[in-house]
């Protein structure tokens, strides 16, 4: 009996030692991966000169620091390059532009889009972005007005940066409709703005951070898979946010940006639509309802459209770019644009905006 107990004790001890050694090895590996990830992110954002026309570029080539502390960074103006295999052209304000319809003489309905990489059109051409799909459909189905869209989205932007971009660069002339695209990292900053992590800190487990990020994506680092449903209690890693950027992150900053957007809407008399793809967390639904913003959640309708086309994985290829990159593909943008148009038509918003544009053009008696 004693020999059996000693054998069991040795087996348990050996198992514990093996577990400790494995855990320690994984901890070291995840610290090395964190260091390399931060190095890549910092290098990607280290470019300071505009890219050469016609060149093929990565994210860091197309961004420059902004003089506005709440915008932080912006696209280089007047670019004509290839980004992720798609043409990228920017105007003098640093906004992505596409061919678009020729402006006809008639009532103009101006739409301004606020967003990050999803609205920007990560990995697709400007004419294929869902904002372009929406405008093309409106020009086709509602020829009583000329519909235009200004895409101010920049990869990495959060809600504070987006609303500040509207206030600083996109209100002349004022829009009729502002479309704000919410995604799950909109209470955060992108990795290349965050400070380096303390790779040798004994008070933090990088392995535990990885496990937590998979169980609760909102508690980890900014995920390339657009980590969804952030908890209001911990929307970002506070120890990695530079002090001068603290007012740009978290629930208080998010709510403040929506308050500013509501004030701008009241002053300039434009409508606000908050778009969430696929769905909005509860606090976003409450925030939209409290400010009388129309909330459009495209997920349910996109799923229906996908099933109708015989597609089973609504958030995988062919609706996403790749299995590793969930940004919408050309087909994904098409379905989002269709779902958005249906939601706007369901509440009669296009008719109201077209009527407003006609009244603005009609001379007063």
Kindly summarize this structure in a few lines.
The protein is of the alpha/beta class and 365 residues long. 42% of the residues lie in helices and 13% in strands.
Structure report:
The protein has 365 residues and is α/β, with parallel strands linked by helices. It has a domain at 56-188 and 247-361: SGNH hydrolase (Rossmann fold), CATH 3.40.50. The chain contains eleven helices and eleven strands. The strands form three sheets. The chain has a five-stranded parallel sheet, with helices on both faces. It has a four-stranded mixed sheet with strand order 1-4-5-6. Strands 2-3 form a two-stranded antiparallel sheet. Helix 1 crosses helix 6, helix 5 runs parallel beside helix 7 (250-268) and helix 9 (299-308) packs across helix 10 (330-346). The longest helix has 43 residues, at 2-44. It is elongated and about 100 Å long.
Topology summary:
Elements: H1 2-44, E1 56-57, H2 59-62, E2 63-65, E3 73-75, E4 80-83, E5 86-90, E6 96-97, E7 108-114, H3 117-120, H4 130-141, E8 146-151, H5 159-169, E9 177-182, H6 206-215, H7 250-268, E10 271-276, H8 282-290, E11 294-297, H9 299-308, H10 330-346, H11 349-361
Parallel strand pairs: 1-4, 7-8, 7-9, 9-10, 10-11
Antiparallel strand pairs: 2-3, 4-5, 5-6
């Amino acid at each position: 009996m004693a020999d059996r107990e000693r054998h069991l004790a040795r087996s348990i001890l050996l198992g514990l030692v093996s577990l400790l050694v494995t855990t320690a090895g994984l901890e070291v590996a995840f610290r090395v991966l964190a260091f390399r990830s931060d190095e890549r992110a910092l290098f990607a954002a280290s470019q300071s000169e505009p890219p050469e026309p016609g060149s093929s570029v990565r994210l860091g080539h197309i961004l420059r620091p902004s003089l506005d502390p709440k915008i932080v960074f912006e696209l280089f103006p007047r670019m004509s390059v290839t980004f992720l295999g798609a043409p990228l052209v920017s105007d003098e304000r640093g906004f992505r532009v596409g061919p678009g319809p020729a402006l006809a003489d008639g009532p103009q309905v101006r739409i301004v889009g606020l967003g990050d990489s999803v609205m920007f059109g990560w990995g697709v051409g400007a004419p294929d972005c869902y904002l372009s799909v929406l405008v093309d459909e409106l020009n086709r189905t509602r020829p009583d007005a000329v519909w235009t869209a200004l895409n101010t989205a920049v990869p990495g932007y959060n809600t504070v940066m987006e609303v500040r971009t509207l206030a600083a660069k996109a209100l002349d002339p004022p829009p009729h409709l502002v479309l704000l695209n919410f995604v799950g990292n909109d209470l955060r900053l992108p990795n290349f703005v965050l400070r380096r992590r303390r790779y040798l800190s004994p008070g933090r487990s990088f392995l535990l951070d990885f496990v937590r990020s998979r169980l609760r994506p909102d508690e980890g680092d900014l995920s390339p898979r657009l980590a969804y449903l952030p908890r209001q209690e911990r929307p970002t890693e506070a120890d990695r946010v530079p002090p001068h950027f603290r007012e740009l992150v978290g629930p208080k900053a998010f709510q403040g940006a929506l308050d500013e957007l509501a004030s701008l809407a009241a002053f300039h008399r434009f409508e606000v639509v908050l778009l969430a793809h696929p769905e909005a967390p509860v606090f976003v639904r409450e925030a939209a309802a409290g400010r009388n913003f129309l909330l459009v959640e495209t997920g349910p309708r996109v799923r229906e459209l996908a099933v109708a086309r015989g597609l089973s994985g609504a958030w995988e290829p062919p609706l996403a770019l790749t299995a590793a990159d969930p940004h919408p593909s050309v087909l994904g943008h098409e379905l989002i644009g269709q779902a958005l148009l249906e939601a706007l038509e369901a509440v009669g918003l296009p008719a109201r905006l077209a009527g407003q544009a006609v009244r603005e053009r009609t001379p007063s008696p």
